[in-house]
TrEMBL record:
InterPro entries the UniProt entry points to: Clp1/Grc3, Clp1_N, Clp1_N_sf
Organism: Cirrhinus mrigala
Protein's name in the database: Clp1 N-terminal domain-containing protein
GO terms for cellular component: nucleus
The organism's place on the tree of life at top rank: Eukaryota
Key words of the record: ATP-binding, mRNA processing, Nucleotide-binding, Nucleus
Bias (Polar residues): 1-18
Main subcellular location of this protein, as a coarse class: nucleus
Gene Ontology terms, MF aspect: ATP binding
Protein location: Nucleus
Residue ranges, annotated region (Disordered): 1-20
Keyword Cell wall biogenesis/degradation on entry: no
Domain Clp1 N-terminal: 19-102
Length: 111
């Protein structure tokens, strides 16, 4: 799928990830209009324009939905409900629980 270079708005509800693969000679401008989202674990600021260079592969994730504005041409763009983020969260929670238990028992926790 190729998006024409223009202002596009996109919405995403619930836990989902949006992926963009940029063409080799094009950059993409991305702005978070509402909600919360992150790119590879770094939280995005609302109403700040982010520019991604030619050939970039970007994954934007939201837990609760968001609205974004895009400007540029993508080689591939799609929204996926099937992301590993819930698995990462559960793994983090399990490790944290093990660390707290080890601290409580004055032992070494997982590293």
């Amino acid at each position: 799928m190729t998006a024409e270079p223009s202002e596009n708005s996109s919405g995403s509800a619930g836990t989902s990830g949006t992926r963009f693969d940029l063409e080799k000679e094009t950059e993409l401008r991305f702005e978070l209009l509402s909600g919360l989202a992150e790119v590879f674990g770094s939280e995005l600021n609302r109403n700040k324009k982010y520019t991604f260079g030619p050939g970039s592969k970007i994954a934007v994730f939201t837990w609760q939905g968001c609205s974004v504005s895009l400007s540029g041409k993508t080689e591939v763009a799609y929204i996926s409900k099937d992301t590993p983020m819930l698995l990462y969260l559960n793994t983090h929670a399990a490790l944290e629980q093990m660390r707290r238990q080890a601290e409580k028992e004055n032992e070494r926790g997982p590293r």
